[in-house]
Amino acid sequence: MKVGAATDVGLVRHCNEDAYLVAADRGLFAVADGLGGHAAGDVASRLALETLDEELTADRLHDGVGPARLLTRSLASAHRAVEADTRGHPERSGMGTTAVVAHVSTNGDAAWLAHVGDSRAYLLDDGRLRQVTTDHTSSGPFMRSFITQALGASGDVSPTLEHVELADGDRLLLCTDGLTDMLDDGHIEAILVENRPAQESCDALVEAAKRQGGVDNVTVVVIDVGR
Ligand code: CA
Description:
The chain is built from 6 helices and 13 strands. It is an alpha+beta fold. The strands form 3 sheets. Strands 2, 3, 4, 5, 6 and 11 form a 6-stranded antiparallel sheet that branches. The relative contact order is 0.22. A hairpin with a 4-residue loop joins strand 2 and strand 3. The site of calcium ion has 6 residues, from helix 4.
């Protein structure tokens, strides 16, 4: 398994509220997109990924409970961790974060994914890109969409789980909306099928998002299966 990751503030924002987690030895990968502005959104995304990192230990991932339940449980813990931090820091009220987390099995033949919000997972399989996750969004006035759930936001979260089978040569992409708001799926696919090393593909995706305007923070993780 070869992995690349990149995060960039973009061309308009002053603060990068995105974060990523890469723990390839555990087959664990995640991205998060914080909400709530300076000194809040970045806290939320970082805290959520720290919680996932602490909860999803190698021992737990191999103890038979099953990654699906563990991923869901760890996102619920991240939700509570961000909530608790907000209670301790009222100036951060309103902060929250999306998250999409993937666990690739040791032999690389499958992955479990769980997400909250509109950060996405895609699978490039035989040169075709497929969006694995479905955004937790609803459409509002003026063609705008808003996130219907976020870690740390009021109310409960119910992460959506996905299971994908993987084969050698497949590429998994985790990304924040700073990528997908700038590039359509065809554009993302065109970059991923060039089959450059994972880190180069990540850098190319970020550069392309910035060429298209870079209006938001952009974060990507590319996982090459079986290489
Ligand atoms: Ca964003």
